[in-house]
Amino acid sequence: MKPLSLIRRRESFLGVVILVLILAVGLITPEFLSAGSLLGAFNDTSILIILALGQMLVIVTRCIDLSVAANVALTGMVVAMLNASYPFIAVPWLLLLAMTLGALLGMINGLLVWRLGVPAIVVTLGTMSIYRGAVFLLSHGAWVNAHQMSAGFIEFPRTTIAWLPVMSWIALTVVLVFFLLTRYWRFGRDFFSAGGNPTAAFYTGIDVGWVQFRAFVISGLLAGLCGYLWVSRYAVAYVDVANGFELQVVAACVIGGVSIMGGIGTVVGCVLGALFLGVINNALPVIGVSPFWQMAISGAVIIVAVIANSRAERRKGRVILRTPTLNMARG
C-alpha cells in the first residue's frame, strides 16, 4: 500500500472518529452540539494546532522539539511583564517581539543540532530546563495577573470577527500558510525530503542540517506567537504556564499520522490530530469524566497511534524488499 494512501486513510478515519465523538457527547449533553460550543472548542484548540504544525516540520526532519512549551512560557512571561511595565506599547509590537524571541530560542536548538550534531532530544531537553529556569529568574517566581495587563493586551485574541475570535483566525491563517508551504513550495517540500531519505536529499543538493535548523526556527517562531496568545487568552503569566504541553503537541502530530521516523506527515492530518485531542479535552469534562481519566484516555490514544504508525511503516518496508526478490526468482 502506498504511503499516501495510508495517510489519506488515517485522515478519513480521524475525521469520522471526531464526528462520532462529537455526536456521542451531543447525545448525552445536547448543548455540546450548539454552534457556539463547537466554535469555542475550536478556539480552545487553536494554540495546540499552531504548535503542532511547527512541531510537524521538526519531526518530519527526524528531530523533535521538547522545549516548545518552555518557549511559550518564556516568551509569554517577557511580553506580559513588558505590558505590565509599559502598557503603552502596542499589541502588534509585542506580537512581533514574542515571535522574534521565540525564533531566537528555536535558533539555539537548531544551531546545536546542525553545527554540533547533538541529538535533538538531548538538546531540547536541556533547553527546556534552561528556558523554564529563565522564566523563574526573570519573574522571581511572581505572577503577572489580569489587573496588571492592559485591556488591549487581553482583548486582542478575544475580539470577534465574522463569528470567530481573532485567535481562531490566526490558527486558520497558520493552517493555510502551512498547507501552501508543504504542498506547493520547494521550501516546504525540502523538510520531507531531508527527513524521508537524508542520503538521497544530500545528493540532490539539500543541506539536511540547514533544513533541520529552519524547522527549529519556524517551530520557535510559532511558539513565540503562542506565548502571547496563551498569556493574553488566560490573562495570567507564571512559571508553569504550558507545563507538560509539549507532550500534547507531539501527541497531536503522532495521532495525525506524522511519522517519528521522519519524511511522512500532512497538514490536514496534523490539524485533525490536534482537533481530536481538543474534542477529548472539551468533551470529557462536559460528560463528567474525571481529569485523571482524560489523561489515561489521551495516553492510550497516543500508544495506539504510535503502534498504527509503526505497523504502517513496517508494511511499507516489506513491499520495497519484496519486489527485487520476486524479480530475481522470475529471472
Topology, element by element:
Blueprint (H helix, E strand, L loop, with lengths): L2 H26 L6 H26 L7 H18 L5 H26 L3 H20 L11 H5 L4 E2 L2 E2 H19 L1 H11 L1 H6 L4 H27 L10 H11 L11 H20 L4 H40 L1
Antiparallel strand pairs: 1-2
Helix pairs in contact: 1-12, 2-7, 2-8, 2-10, 2-11, 2-12, 3-4, 3-5, 3-10, 4-5, 4-10, 7-8, 8-10, 11-12, 11-13
Family: Belongs to the binding-protein-dependent transport system permease family. AraH/RbsC subfamily.
Protein name: Autoinducer 2 import system permease protein LsrC
Subcellular location: Cell inner membrane
SS-based class: mainly alpha
Which residue ranges are poorly predicted, with pLDDT under 50 across at least 5 consecutive positions? 317-331
**Which value, in Å, is the CA radius of gyration?**
21 Å
Quaternary structure: single chain
Dominant shape: globular
Q: Please count the helical segments.
A: 13
Strand content: under 5%
What's the mean pLDDT score? Answer: 88
Task: Classify the helix fraction into a percent range.
Answer: over 70%
Distance between the termini: 25 Å
Question: Total domains, how many?
Answer: 1
Protein name: Autoinducer 2 import system permease protein LsrC
Family: Belongs to the binding-protein-dependent transport system permease family. AraH/RbsC subfamily.
Function: Part of the ABC transporter complex LsrABCD involved in autoinducer 2 (AI-2) import. Probably responsible for the translocation of the substrate across the membrane.
Main location: membrane
